[in-house]
Amino acid sequence: MAPRVLDGVAIAATIRKEVAEEVARLGRQGIRPGLAAVLVGNAPASQIYVRSKVEACAELGLFSDLIAPPAEVTTAEMLDLVATLNSRDDIDGILIQLPLPPQVDAKILLEAVAPEKDVDGFHPMNAGRLLAGRPALAPCTPAGIIEILERSGIPVTGQHAVVVGRSDIVGKPVAMLLLHRNATVTICHSKTRSLGEITHQADILVAAIGRAGFITPEMVRLGATLIDVGINRITTREEFDRFFLGDTKRAAVFAKRGSTIVGDIHPQAFEVAGAYTPVPGGVGPLTIAMLMANTVRAAKMRRGL
Ligand code: NDP
Fold it and tell me: 285: Cβ below 6 Å to ligand 1?
């Protein structure tokens, strides 16, 4: 049977619609959730991400404030900015786009964000609440992965979920969310021995590694659900052929743009799967949708709703 494609674009669109409806409801009570997006410097990728987040706010009816300190901003100046945003009543969520320039201490800064406005879910208070299984603002990408599984009717309880990657942003929090949903969870990383044997046992395999096509077909059990978080840009014909030989549609785009995106799972591994998230169009679209959902949630929680 052909594997099922888990369409992140469609799921994200449904969530965005639900968020817009909730924003309209809150509007009738005189509440407009607001997001502050802080973008330091002018890295092109960060600019694109922040622009999409601000556009999503406008589309869904949230207030947004884009704040762009200069690239040479100091940690002290950033802390002042965060303190101001923490105290502003029109701001429910504070997003600090990473990476920050080297002179800014990202750890100190992320801890300075008021936990109730921490819509990225990076504050240790929210990480701790997540670990303890208490209500928290969960990081957006992991929360999005859970939405994909739940809304696609993929069972999690009792399943063996293998997460490859242990970052604070993706690997660890998604493992916690899966555990709280009664999966049996194994977390793998760069020091894991016999990785392929472990991934082969997965009913649900989450790859958050940051290495193009790292999970190959022989590492995947027939019929498994594959969640590919990776976003890796490839630019050479050799790499393209390694992943997409014979894919004429993608070849045309590659020829025009000179690059394409591949996940952490080799596309051939999808053929072995029962279901999988494509790249692009899988996990990626959920991240912004969940940021919007978190901002509305923060707005409600702050008002005791
Ligand atoms: P990090 O670099 O922070 O973490 C990567 C993890 O992969 C680490 O835990 C590392 O192990 C592990 N790893 C690296 N090499 C190996 C290996 N050979 N075998 C097993 N494990 C390995 O990355 P992120 O978690 O931030 O991101 C992962 C990917 O997801 C990236 O491609 C990123 O672009 C993408 N991403 C996508 C998002 C989206 O919206 N779709 C959002 C966030 C990230 P160790 O800890 O031992 O070093």
Answer: no
Give the model confidence (pLDDT) of 162-221 as tens digits: 999 999 999 999 999 999 999 999 999 999 999 999 999 999 999 999 999 999 999 999
| Nearest ligand 1 atom, CA 210 | 32
Same domain, 175 and 49: no
Report if pTM > 0.90: yes
Atom 6 of ligand 1, residue of closest alpha carbon:
165
What is residue 192's three-state secondary structure?
Answer: coil
Asked if the structure places residue 120 within a domain, the reply is: no
Amino acid identity, residue 85? L
Residue range of the domain that includes 193 = 140-286
d(CA 300, CA 305): 5
278 lines ligand 1 (CB under 6 A): no
Rounded to the nearest 5°, which phi and psi values hold at 207? Answer: -110, 115
CATH code where residue 157 lies: 3.40.50.720
Residue 294 placed within a domain: no
**Structural domain total, the chain:** 2
CB 234 within 8 A of CB 192: no
Q: Is residue 8 part of a domain?
A: no
Q: Is 113 in the pocket of ligand 1 (CB under 6 A)?
A: no
